[in-house]
Backbone:
């Protein structure tokens, strides 16, 4: 079966524990992103769990859209929407944001996480690199949670305990009026 996508393997967007991400185009010439996940047989279950989390039939504006999945002998290709503004760390470096813009981005992150939790998914890897930024039709930034490589499904009512040493140390800083700093944990 011929793929409906052309992967641009010389155009690396990023990489992590769960594979490399490249630019690709579909037959209509629309730019998409493709995560290429190479795995050994013992990793197939982990890859399948992550793919299941991504393919839930409950679209949300703050969760990355998955268009298609193709499998080859030793790898899986996950085709998803391309977020032209990059990840949150890159976005913050390139653009000075007002307090209200920062608050709106945090609201979107929290809304996306709440949506995942309401469907029994714990992301377990919320970092600035796994939070992508897309431009909405009105030009404002929109958050997209991505990279579900270590996510888990949980049963409703399951108590979750995480040792403090395992908690993410990433903190979001908001510059408030009079240059006061307010730091609060994301999760």
Residues:
């Amino acid at each position: 079966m011929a793929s409906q996508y052309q992967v641009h393997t010389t155009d690396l967007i990023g990489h992590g524990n769960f594979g490399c991400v490249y630019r690709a185009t579909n037959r209509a010439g629309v730019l998409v992103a493709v995560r290429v996940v190479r795995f050994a047989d013992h990793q197939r279950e982990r890859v399948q769990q992550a793919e299941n989390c991504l393919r839930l039939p409950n679209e949300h504006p703050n969760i990355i859209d998955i268009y298609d999945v193709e499998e080859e002998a030793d790898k899986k290709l996950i085709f998803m929407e391309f977020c032209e503004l990059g990840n949150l760390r890159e976005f913050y470096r390139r653009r000075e944001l007002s307090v209200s813009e920062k608050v709106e981005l945090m609201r979107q992150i929290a809304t996306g996480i709440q949506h995942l939790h309401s469907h029994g998914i714990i992301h377990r890897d919320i970092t600035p690199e796994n939070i992508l930024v897309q431009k909405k039709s009105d030009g404002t930034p929109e958050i997209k949670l991505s990279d579900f490589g270590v996510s888990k499904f949980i049963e409703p009512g399951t108590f979750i305990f995480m040792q403090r040493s395992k908690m993410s140390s990433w903190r979001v800083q908001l510059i408030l009026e009079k240059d006061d700093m307010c730091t609060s944990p994301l999760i």
